[in-house]
Every structure is written in structure tokens, then in C-alpha cells.
């Protein structure tokens, strides 16, 4: 344990005690305060905040998440920051409904119940929760699943809701050589012991709102959106909602019957799949092109609409300006970027160690 310091957050007026050895984000979780975050790995920028006063040090992060100019101006990433004095920090955004949910972050031991093929490279992983036998989370949140036998973990969004007792389900894209995802192609057996920590993430339906919804997803980005849609069906939340889902070819699509069933249950819900590489000689008669182009083509004025985006970072980066151009308020664009844990191509990994002290002052 290191020295302790006080951290005061503006404008919410919350103060917590932080140990030098933990990140400010982890300290906030420990106090039951859910600050804005995404990857927790210095890759996505969701936790970017402004250091008003004090002395902190940041571990390795991507310059995509925090660039040189922002760093010079005093912006910091709370998932990578350690306090070395009392601090005053301004939160750039916060989620009122989630901030004090009181849902504790739990360490859960589980067993593999099933690994099923959804497509040629997307699998469904079902874990049977053993100790404790349940997991409380808000639909859209994610778990850190540990690679068996190591303390290394990867982030995966739960695709079910908490009504599926004693189970946590995930939709995972497999990468050859991927340390966790490749295990789903034969490396994990039914009954294997797994460890996970959850829930994390701020990607969740703003339930107090009545606004129309646009979902944009690609690949395994289906996972958190499927969880939110299942929750809407369970609770009868029938706000006008359109789900644009991008895939390359027909063999990359899945859950088509389930989504059609959801359209029956929620009369104001519409699913719009689109293929970016449709076979010209095939039978596909749905939308074609990049999913962002499809949104651009089909949608008119989106003022007052909330947007929820999940999947690969390039898809999200391309979708945000399109949605804003259509009138979506930037404060109402919520996203879950599936950043990778390792180095990101084209991004510099940076560690802020100032001249001698190694701190941002
Ligand atoms: C908040 C959050 C939620 C997430 N939720 C999900 C989810 O629900 N489902 C899901 O499938 N993933 C999700 N991810 C991504 C996931 O955490 C892993 O990064 C991904 O599964 C790769 O892990 P790995 O151990 O298999 O590969 P690693 O061992 O980390 O990577 C090894 C190699 O695999 C390849 N690779 C890995 N990721 C990519 C990529 N994105 N694009 C191209 N090549 C890649 C690269 O060659 C890389 O060098 C999420 C990420 C975050 C931050
Ligand atoms: S949560 Fe800090 S950069 Fe993603």
C-alpha cells in the first residue's frame, strides 16, 4: 500500500481517498462511484478529465486517447493516473443514472457451459456462474475475463441480461493468435474453470429518456446492443428504435431470426442489416455499403435522437460525424469502442514521466 491522498471531483462535488498504488478510476470504483470509462487501458479516451490542481503520474496510454496538446493543456486519463498529492479534477462528462448505481464490482468464478458457432469467426460463450452464482449488471456493461492460468484479462460485453439466472453470455470474435479469443476455437472445454471481474462500462440505455434511438453495430459489437434490446423487450420499452448492423458478407450475419422476433415484440423496433461486400451473384436483397453510408442514405433529421454505437473503433469513429451531421446532439452519442489491449497500429504508446519527478504538475 502506498501513501493516501484526497481527490475531489468537480462539478459533482464528490471526494474520495486514493492510494498512490491504485489508479484514480479504480479508487472511484472501490468507493462505489462509477466515473465515465470504457477500455480502462488508456486506449479509448472515455475517462478523459481535466486536472485543475495537484500532482499525478500516468502509466502507458495511446496518443489516440490523449494527444500531446491535450496533455499540455492539463487533460489526463483517469484509468492510467496515480495521485501523488491531493487533487482537484474536473469530470468532462458523467452519467447521472450510473454514477451511484451501487452495483459492486465482483470477482466471480465460473465454468464454461458452452462455446457455440454464431458465424465462421464469431462465437457465443456461455459461462455458468459458480461463486457467487449471480452477477448484477446493467445491460450494455462488460466483464473482464481472465485468460485461464494467468492474471491477464480481456474485456467482453455481456450479451444476456440479469434475468438469465446463473449465466453470463458473451459474443466474441475470434482472431487467430488472439490470446483469449483463439481459445474459443478448441482451447476451452465445457467445465473449464474461468475467472471474471464485472461489471464495468457506461454503455447503457438512458431509461429516463423518451427519445428515439439509433443503434449502430458491427461484428461482435452485437453483444452489448443485444443485451440492451433484450432488456427493452423484457421491460416493454417500445421507444422508436432502429438498429443498423454492418457485416461484410451474408456469412457474417447472425441472430436474424431472433431480431425478426424482436421486431414482432417491439412494434417500434426495426433491424437494418447491411453488407459491405455482398456477392453480386448472391440472393442478398437488403442494404449494401458501409454501415455509416447506409445510415447517411436512409436517415433524415435525427435531432432529439439518442445514438448507441458498439464495435470496432474505426466504425465508431466514422459513425459519430455522420450522426452529428444528421442532428444528433454530441452529448447523446454513447459508444462502446472494442479497443484492443495490445499496441494499436498507427498510435504511439506514451507514458508520462516528467523531467525528474515523472508527474503531470
Ligand atoms: C469495453 C470493451 C468491450 C469489448 N467487448 C467485446 C465483445 O463483446 N466481443 C468481442 O469480441 N470483443 C470485445 N472487446 C475486444 C476484446 O477485449 C479483445 O481485445 C479481443 O477479443 C482481442 O483479444 P485477444 O486476446 O483474442 O487478442 P490479443 O492477444 O489481444 O491480440 C492478438 C492479435 O489478435 C489480432 N487482433 C486482436 N484484436 C483485433 C482487432 N480488433 N482487429 C484486428 N485484429 C485484432 C491482432 O493481430 C493482435 O495483434 C471489447 C473491448 C473493450 C475495450
Ligand atoms: S477508460 Fe481510460 S482511456 Fe479508455
* Arrangement of strands in the largest sheet: 11-10-13-8-9-12
What proportion of the residues is helical, as a percent range?
Answer: 10-25%
Low-confidence stretches: 353-361
* Global mean pLDDT: 92
| Bound ligands, each once | flavin-adenine dinucleotide, FE2/S2 (inorganic) cluster
Distance between the termini: 23 Å
Number of strands: 20
Number of helices: 7
Q: Report the biggest beta sheet as strand number plus sense, adding barrel if it closes.
A: 6 strands, antiparallel
- What is the ordering of alpha helices and beta strands? EEHEEHEEEHEEEEEEEHEHEEHEHEE
CATH T-level topology of the largest domain: Rossmann fold
Q: What is the CATH class name of the largest domain?
A: Alpha Beta
Shape: globular
Strand content: 25-35%
Number of domains: 3
What is the CATH H-level superfamily of the largest domain? Nucleotide-binding domain of ferredoxin-NADP reductase (FNR) module
CATH architecture verdict of the largest domain: 3-Layer(aba) Sandwich
**Class based on secondary structure composition and strand pairing:** alpha/beta
Please tell me how large the radius of gyration is: 21 Å
Describe the overall structure:
With 361 residues, the protein is of the alpha/beta class. The protein folds into three domains: 4-100, Beta-grasp domain (Ubiquitin-like (UB roll), Roll), CATH 3.10.20; 106-200, Elongation Factor Tu (Ef-tu), domain 3; 213-337, 3-Layer(aba) Sandwich (Rossmann fold). Helices cover 17% and strands 34% of the residues. It has helices at residues 24-30, 68-73, 96-99, 222-235, 256-265, 291-298, 313-325; strands spanning 4-10, 14-19, 48-53, 56-62, 75-77, 81-83, 87-91, 106-117, 122-131, 142-146, 153-157, 167-173, 193-200, 213-218, 241-247, 269-275, 287-288, 306-311, 333-337, 349-352. The chain is globular, with a radius of gyration of 21 Å. FE2/S2 (inorganic) cluster is lined by residues 37-40, 42-47, 65, 77, 79.
